[in-house]
Amino acid sequence: MSNLALRTRPAWDIDRWMDRWVRDFFSPATAEDWFGGFSPAADIVRDGDDALVRVELAGVDVDKDVKVEVENGRLVIHGERRDEYAEDKGGRSVRELRYGSFRRTFALPAHVTSDAISATYDKGVLTVRVAGVYKGSEPQRIAIESK
């Protein structure tokens, strides 16, 4: 399972890098890690004050097999890519596509509620808009008075 935060920090932030390394190293493996699940590729893009989480889900029936939820302050996208040819006994000569269940989670700032989240699917990409993620995230300068 992968975790991506919807917060802005410099890429070189050593604290974030160490936190992720420790979390990945010590976190228990999930059933998907051992039994054929996969982790679809994802991008997080800033669009004004909103964040767009784009998840590559080509070949997935999003109406039937994908759920987008808010759970304990996290955006959770989970579902399954089904193998239409699993029963085909003719065999495959090459198998590169991953099938099975998937789950991606993304940390949300405390001020974001489920009302701020919408999702669309187009051309194999699920786009989840999280409105207002970056609102007020710009540093505010405080005047210093001299005495």
Short description:
With 147 residues, the chain is an alpha+beta fold. The protein has helices spanning 14-26, 31-34, 62-65, and strands spanning 2-5, 42-47, 50-56, 66-71, 74-81, 100-107, 117-122, 125-130.
Overview of this protein structure:
The protein has 147 residues and is α+β, with helices and mostly antiparallel strands. It is 14% helix and 35% strand. The protein has three helices and eight strands; from the N terminus they run βααββαβββββ. The chain has helices at residues 14-26, 31-34, 62-65, and strands at 2-5, 42-47, 50-56, 66-71, 74-81, 100-107, 117-122, 125-130. The strands form two sheets. It has a four-stranded mixed β-sheet with strand order 1-6-5-4. A hairpin with a 2-residue loop joins β4 and β5. The radius of gyration is 19 Å and the shape is elongated. It starts with a strand and ends in a 17-residue tail after the last strand.
Outline the low-pLDDT stretches. Answer: 30-35
Radius of gyration: 19 Å
Strand content: 25-35%
The share of residues in helices is 10-25%
| Morphology | elongated
- pLDDT averaged residue by residue: 79
Measured between the Cα atoms of the first and last residue, the distance is 55 Å
Largest sheet: 4 strands, mixed
Query: Going across the major beta sheet, what is the strand order?
Result: 1-6-5-4
Instruction: Write the H/E string, N to C.
Output: EHHEEHEEEEE
> How does the helix and strand content classify structurally?
alpha+beta
Task: Summarize the topology.
Layout: E1 2-5, H1 14-26, H2 31-34, E2 42-47, E3 50-56, H3 62-65, E4 66-71, E5 74-81, E6 100-107, E7 117-122, E8 125-130
Parallel strand pairs: 1-6
Antiparallel strand pairs: 2-3, 3-8, 4-5, 5-6, 7-8
